[in-house]
Design goal:
Blueprint lengths: L17 H8 L18 H9 L20 H32 L19 H10 L7 E2 L3 H14 L9 H14 L8 E12 L3 E2 L7 E2 L2 E14 L2 E15 L25 H9 L5 E13 L2 E7 L3 E2 L18 E6 L8 H5 L4 E8 L3 E6 L5 E6 L2 E12 L2 E12 L9 H5 L5 H4 L6 E15 L10 E10 L1 E5 L5 E5 L2 E9 L3 E9 L18 E2 L2 E2 L8 E10 L6 E13 L7 E14 L1 H8 L10 E14 L13 E13 L1
Antiparallel strand pairs: 1-9, 2-5, 2-28, 3-4, 5-6, 6-7, 7-8, 8-10, 10-11, 11-14, 12-13, 14-15, 15-16, 16-17, 17-20, 18-19, 20-21, 21-24, 22-23, 24-25, 25-26, 26-27, 27-28
Helix pairs in contact: 2-6, 4-5, 5-6
Length: about 650
Amino acid sequence: MRRNWSAPGRSHCGVRSDAMRFLENRGKPYGRAPLLTTGSACCCALVDSAESANLESPAAAVSLPAEGHLSPISAIASHRESRASLRRGFGAALVMGILAGSVVSATPGNASSPVEPDTRTVEWSTLRRLALEAGLFPPAVQPVSEAELAELIDAALDRAQDSQAFADPAELARLHWWRNRYRASGDSPPARLSARVLAGYTGLGAPLDHEAGLAWSPGWNTTFEATMDLSAGRWWASITGRLSGQVAAAGTDFSDPGADQSPLTWPDWSIATGKGQVRDARLQGDAWRVDAPRALVGARLGQWNLSAGWAPRRTGPGLTGALVVDDSGRSFPSLTARRTRPFDWGSGFVGALAPAELLLSTGRLTERPITFRDADGTQHEKIAHPWFFQWLVGWRITSWVRTTFTHAAMAAPREGSLWGDLWQINFPLPGTTHDEVTDGPVTDRYFSGQLEFHWHNAPWPLLPASAGRAYWEYAGTDVNWSGPGDAVPKISAPASMVGVELLSPTWDLAVEYAELQHRDVLWYSNHGFPEGYSQDGWLLGNTLGGSGEAWTSIVRLRPRGPAVETSLRVRHADWGMRGATPGTGEMLTLGASLKKWLSGGQAMARQGWIGLRSPAWWECTVEYRHEQADPGAYIDGGQAVPGAKDDWWRVYVTLGI
């Protein structure tokens, strides 16, 4: 049966839909751009023709303040007591503001699915391109609910000027299919099954980026993931199980005696550098691992999504990773509350202060050693589970500029619990860093400010001009205070990630630079947490790791017609910090991938032969890597330490349904 492309309340050819009225009148959740007029070209006819053509369903350390700068113990106590009242007052004001915003904001009707899908399976590059082409911002965090994804697709389709906004009719049909699925239309079941299979060869062994703690050892490996999503009204649950391991040994063999000390296994490099997870991958041998990278229950309550469980998450605008929270590491159990709509605090000055994004999260990390000292300088060590806290708040300054701030902290009490220190952990006031050297919780904080611009229909020739964005994430290992009366916040030991992405229907171009280097501080390391900012040996932040610097360029090609996308990638990274790393390292990566949406999968899905009407696709990735480790780079004189280098390949195929 042929379906109507328009959702209820949505009309063809520029007549405003309910979703677009909401976008215009309810705080611009995805920005603002001119709507189509009745005289504009419309892509509806193309969708209808696509459906008639059966294209509907395609398948180191944190620097410590010098002790001489600390006040005497009695002064510290009185100082902390006076600041405690300020923290309580600030906390009460914050809670009242959030509650007031929740009450003032109206709750629109929304029948779409509340499920937060696995961020690794969403076609983010396509959604980001279409959003930017339509003059909208893509989501600032991942994951978001299927309802929000459906709304974004709806808005992008509404604002598309003509069929040339899409690579081909098949891409338009795919968006139609995903929108209907995310909207949980009548033919969508309350339970959905999906799966992915990865199989391939790697010469040295390494983690796979953005795969929630997945690593392959040298040789032939395979990974199988199965996902079930359940939803009923506002409630939902989801689980992803994973089986992964080595099928046959090949490539470089590190099993011989003494081979684990090869420079290419990165011995003596700390977890904070990101080399710990690389070393584990190369030494894990033929071990098989069964885990669940994602297991969640959640509910949609008005304009909030609440979830409990563990899942890969990401907060940051970067293409290769985020500085504070990234989805490459292993997930951990957490409670998360995320605002799905901008706050509406009316007009005027107060209305302008209403945030467009808000996220609050807390979780528990794996057990590890924690070290601290008391006021008389005595050093202590214990084994405990640190807690993880994060907040994120963002504003749409204009329709083309947004800014986001996020703060994350690992914390453990010296004794007792953290209840009395929650405001201090999450909202440190002047002097907090100094106080915590000998008193209060043991903490490791990261603060990030993100600035993002977007445009569409750029005037330049030759380069992709349909849309684009420029972004900057500027982060520090702590927030200190300086200036008169310690009133000026200052990011400590800054790191940066900057990038530009140019987009068009048929090809994209992106360049990104990341720097996690500082002359005094090894990023992601901390005196109180010897294992650094990590979960189960994997960094919580960017896989580049402390002391790293990298340039990345990406080209995506989408020729019209064959429903394929080719990606080309070049990346150069190096590591090293005198006094913090045992040497230096360098890696050059040349990669190419081809992704194909199966036309056969379209017909099978229409006839219900594949699971629950799921799309099917495959992607083949080929990477050449030149890797070099020089453990003697910082040894002045004496006996030279031999280094090592290798040229190796990684080739794998991913199948999804």
